[in-house]
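> agent: user asked for a holo structure of the chain below bound to zinc ion. Plan: (1) validate sequence alphabet, (2) canonicalize SMILES, (3) run complex prediction with ligand conditioning, (4) return tokens. Step 1... ok. Step 2... ok. Step 3 dispatched.
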Amino acid sequence: MPDLITHLSISYLFNKSLKAIRYSTLFYVGAVLPDIATRAVSIPYHPAEFAVYPLHTPLGVVLLCLLLSFFFAEAERKQVFISLIAGSSLHLFLDLFQKHLQPGYTLLFPFSWQPFEFGLFWPETIISMVPLWLVIIFVIEFRLWLKRI
Ligand SMILES: [Zn+2]
């Protein structure tokens, strides 16, 4: 998993360039949702990892986003779901670029346990890029702020 700052930064760059997501905040929530849903449980209580692992798979993410969208008014659910699933899909896609010591991500869970990953970088490699993401975001926001004044 790239770190959460990287996930948020890249989702910010996607959101700013595409401008297709109606609920940006929910897109950002979706961008960290798979890790929050699994790591918030598995890190403090590792034996529970098998129970929350499906929430970091495409099917689990779809079901989780559907569940969360039902907390919103019926008229907004479709856009809420689209925003959450777009962010979560980006999250899972970015995770595929990371190398793992253990098997990668099981994209076809529960139909297959075959792991898959592109394996282009180690987790600590992308963390060194965090200052760059933050500078890029600052520059973008600063330029937007200058346009508003
Ligand atoms: Zn992840």
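> agent: step 4 complete. Summary for user: The radius of gyration is 16 Å. The CA atoms of residues 21 and 82 lie 8 Å apart.
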